[in-house]
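Feature request, filed as a ticket because there's no other form

It would be nice if the structure record came with a short human-readable summary line next to the tokens. Right now we just get the raw output. Example of a typical job, pasted below so the devs can see what we mean:
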Amino acid sequence: MNPKKTLRILGTRGIPAQHGGFETFAEHLALFLTKNGWTVTVYCQDEGEGTVCEDEWQGIRLIRFPIKNKGAFGTINFDWKTTLHAARFKDGILTLGYNTAIFGIIFRLRQLKNIINMDGLEWRREKWSLGAKLWLYLNERIGCWVGNHLVADHPEIEKHLATRVPSDKITMIPYGAPSVDNADPELLVPYGLHPQQYAIVIARPEPENSILEIVSAFSRQKRGKTLVVLGDFNKANPEYRSKVFAAAGEEVLFPGAVYDQQLVKALRFNACLYIHGHQVGGTNPSLVEALGAGMAILAHNNRYNRWVADSDNYFFSDTNECAQALDSLLENKAILQSLQQKNRQRHLTRFTWESILAQYEQLLLERL
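Raw output as currently delivered:
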């Protein structure tokens, strides 16, 4: 047990969340634990040079490390420095991700309890070079060894980790999402969009997220609706970006990356369909958020998405299947409304933040 109820969270760029799923999760967990009497410290990565400084946000202690390097090397540098800093104290450790799990050897040497959320199978992603895949693979194996306990965000990830360590060293806790019951439709006006008259994709423009297949399938015929593709194409592979743009018909809209959370919420809530093309990974936060917004879902057909979205929704494996599903769904208001109701119920049953965060607190109390 951990009578002090103190926790240091490593492995994110920091809070308040401005980046990805881990940052959003860290924000929710830190706020939840703080309200329950925990002392929580979150390490934050700032750009540039300077000295380490401390800050506070809603009762959470923030320790900011300026890092002048960008990209992967900057992240490794940040993780190294924060590991050394956290190792000076006797608090419990929660590490989000295993990308630099090798540094966790320091926690072992200091006899500090370190719970690692093992994320997805990062080393299988096609976007990484051979060297990056090797680094990630080795750190996954090391993370299984140095972590005192492991969290899997999906049953399939739990099964995979069970080939590395005893099953009693693993706890499966997925990600959560808020319930979205309303959103301002006026925020759609600048994009020329109308409620229930568009489908939406929210993903990095990478081959493994099926953007090309989705855009090609949607553009095969006039739909009378718009496909909105949210993602930063400025950072995409130029060849892949060209293929996606070339495949897009006039009903496809590319607004770029959108970070305004109220706008993203409005785009989700008012869409008639969420299309999720992710082919690898565990419980994807964007898919859970779609459930929380009560969206009908068309997802890539794999064991990760099928567990999250359940069998009520529609799935595709290639461009042809995606096109066929769109033909069936977009003009069938009754099916869309039925899926929206079922997905809202699935979210309330399994993926609310209240349930997820309570499971994490119980795990921390038992294992730290």
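Something like this underneath would help us a lot:
Residues 333-350 form the longest helix (18 residues).
The two ends are 6 Å apart (CA to CA).
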